[in-house]
Design a protein that fits this description.
two-stranded antiparallel ribbon; Alpha-Beta Plaits; alpha+beta
């Protein structure tokens, strides 16, 4: 299961650098997670300063 980034994202880039499989990239208006690349490791969740990342429902 991939993770998702909510509208609370401030585009700080912390999640992008934390992702070990490079599944996160800048999008419009927030960063986006490529579900095909995401390994569900949760590294981005732990690093997000505004808690904008959560598991996909």
């Amino acid at each position: 299961m991939a993770h998702k980034i909510s509208d609370a994202c401030t585009c700080c880039g912390t999640c992008e650098s934390a992702c070990p499989v490079e599944a996160i990239s800048p999008g419009e208006p927030t960063y986006v997670i490529d579900a095909d690349k995401c390994t569900d490791c949760g590294a981005c969740v732990d690093e997000c300063p505004v808690e904008a990342i959560s598991p996909e429902d």
